[in-house]
Amino acid sequence: MRNSIVALLLQVVAMLVGFFARKIFIDYLGTEVLGLNTTATSILNCLNLAELGVWSAIAVTLYKPLYEGDREKVREIVALQGWLYRLIATIIIAGSLIVMLFFPQIFSKSLLPAWYPYATFSVLLYSSMLGYFFNYKKNVLYADQKDYKALLCSRSVNLVKLVCQALAVRYMENGYVWWLILEVVFATVNTIFVAILVDRNYPYLREPVGSAKELRTKYPGVIQKIKFLSVHKLSYFALNQVSPIIIYAYTTLTSVALYGNYILLTTNLGNIINAMFAGTEAGVGNMVAEGDKNLILKVFREFFTSKMFIVATCCICLWILTEPFISVWLGGEYILGKTTLALIIATFFITNTRTIIDTYLNTYGMFSDIWAPIFEAGVNILLSIILGSLYGINGILAGALISQIAIGFIWKPIFLFKWGLKEPLSYYIKLYAKMLVIIAVSFAAVLAISAHISINPAESLLSFLLYAIIVFLLTVFIFGVLLYILEYSFRGIFIRIRNSFNV
Predict the structure, then answer these.
(1) Is residue 255 part of a domain?
(2) What is the rounded CA–CA span in Å between residue 109 and residue 120?
(3) How many CB atoms within 10 Å of residue 240?
(4) How high is the pLDDT of residue 222?
(5) What does the alpha-carbon distance between residue 247 and residue 427 come to, in Å, rounded to a whole number?
(6) Which residue did the predictor score with more confidence, 323 or 367?
(7) In total, how many domains does the chain have?
(8) Containing H/E element for 370?
(9) Are 5 and 230 in contact (CB under 8 A)?
(10) How far apart, in Å, are the Cα atoms of 99 and each of 52, 115, 248, 493?
(11) Are 43 and 99 in contact (CB under 8 A)?
């Protein structure tokens, strides 16, 4: 509950500040700079593939020793992560230097000064490297279900940073230079704060351990998980980072920025959803360690219905509210069209509902289906390139969506139910079909009723807020009532919440 409440509140504040800041960045820096920033981030994330899933492999390995209070084992596992991260950081830095040699060709279509890509990428690289060299120990907070402490520290610093950057861009000369300087300063401050936080909560992590060679020999299971997860990281990159690069290849940095406005909206909503379920994976990990199969399946169904309720509610609201929101926020010229919006929402739905399955796969340590991410990444890139050349941005988004459906929607549930939960797949199919029917009925009802609301949401911010509140409450009421009546696990969630408050 602490993880969820802290993460949710911080994410809502971050979302509001983020929209305010992006408006200033667009007005005073321009879409070219924002497109450059998005593209540079995608390139860096490509290099960050060298991380190879070490974070997830270490988190899974930490569940049991933390549960048993084995401090020596926790210390050794974290030390192994530190050694691996230093090695990975060295590889990323070397790769970055090579990539920067090709910046004149990569950004040949950009009208910005030549130093912009180099400065932007260098600052983002510096911020990323701090995590590899110093902040890796916060993984213990996550695995120990105390992630809210790290979130409170990091998100607070980032919020102050964003406000300072917005004010600097708005009121100072050479605003982008100040944006870069503040990025470096606050990344350093955040690293120091998190390091102090970890040391106070786990002072025994400072005690000496064996050599890297001894640790690799002692924990071969970690290295094995990393080998499997390294392939899964390719899929994650293809799904989340390739699109902006391909969009830039077929269009311009301005198009990347327009796409980025929509993705900022869906990303923030996704972050809010993740915040509501913060710490869930660690909790499920502990539950799996206990081995109560009935409880595991009961919680799975409650987890599934609650997340489907939240994600589908967001999707319905996104369809009705996104275009008027973009008009009020930035202007009508920043709207991409209904087809693009539909593809973005469909991807948002699959991305955020597949995490239910992914959470259980992670806690069971089921990473051996390495063909799946290879297939997903390959299909995504291939279809994005082919369809992108034919249909532009919509083709690129369609390629990413098709690959997600094939693996996240079809294969992953089969994998979990057959080899993890060891329950008939029909259990999941019936549950998913039932949810889709309820969602479709709710969407049709909300769409029909909202069409008769006599408010123009694109007229002003106040009109939009009033319209948005009505649509949101209408969606929650119709969808929530139908789900409460038709799905017993949804009723069980309310009983769980009521009991927690009674305690």
Answers:
(1) no
(2) 17
(3) 15
(4) 72
(5) 39
(6) 323
(7) 2
(8) none
(9) no
(10) 19, 15, 17, 50
(11) yes
Average pLDDT value for residue range 168-183: 88
Per the structure, the complete domain to which residue 431 belongs is given by 279-503
Q: Is 246 exposed, middle or buried (0-12, 13-18, 19+ CB in 10 A)?
A: buried
Whether residue 412 is found in the same domain as residue 487: yes
Same domain, yes or no: 231 and 355: no
Other residues' Cβ atoms within 10 Å of the Cβ of residue 292:
11
Residue 261 lies inside a defined structural domain of this protein: no
The 3-state secondary structure of 259-270 reads HHHHHHHHHHHH
Measured on CA atoms in the order 110, 112, 113, 116, is the torsion positive or negative? negative
Distance between CA atoms of 227 and 373, rounded to whole angstroms?
A: 13
Is 3 a residue whose pLDDT tops 60? yes
Q: Helix, strand, or coil here: 346?
A: helix
Q: Average pLDDT, stretch 468-480?
A: 94
The predicted model gives 443-472 an average pLDDT of 91
274 three-class SS: helix
Most confident of the following: 2-16, 117-131, 198-212, 429-443: 429-443
pLDDT digits (tens, 9 = 90+) for 233-287: 666 665 565 666 676 666 666 666 777 788 888 888 888 887 777 667 667 777 7
Residue 262 lies in a domain: no
* Nearest one of 418, 293, 323, 307 to 361, comparing CA atoms: 418
DSSP of 402-465? HHHIIIIIIIHHHHHHHHTS---HHHHHHHHHHHHHHHHHHHHHHHHHHTT----TTS-HHHHH
**pLDDT for residue 365:** 73
Q: Could you give the CA distance from residue 355 to residue 306 in angstroms, rounded to a whole number? A: 13
Closest by CA to 234, choosing from 362, 48, 402, 400, is 48
Type of residue at 174: N
Arithmetic mean of pLDDT, 18-35: 78
Say which amino acid occupies 133: F
pLDDT at 234: 60
Question: What sign results for the dihedral spanned by CA atoms 54, 55, 58, 60?
Answer: negative
Q: Does residue 17 contact residue 165 with C-beta atoms inside 8 Å?
A: no
Based on the domain organization, do 236 and 87 belong to the same domain?
yes
Q: Which of 202, 347, 333, 194 is nearest to 265 (CA)?
A: 347
Other CB atoms within 10 Å distance of the CB of residue 199 = 12
Query: What span, in angstroms and rounded, lies between the C-alpha atoms of 195 and 187?
Result: 12
Task: Tell whether 126 and 238 lie within a shared domain.
Answer: yes
The position carrying tokens 């609301």 is 453
Query: Scanning the structure block, which residue is given the tokens 């080998």?
Result: 227
Q: What are the E-state strand segments in 34-132?
A: none
CA–CA distance from 498 to each of 305, 311, 478, 502 (Å)? Answer: 17, 23, 22, 6
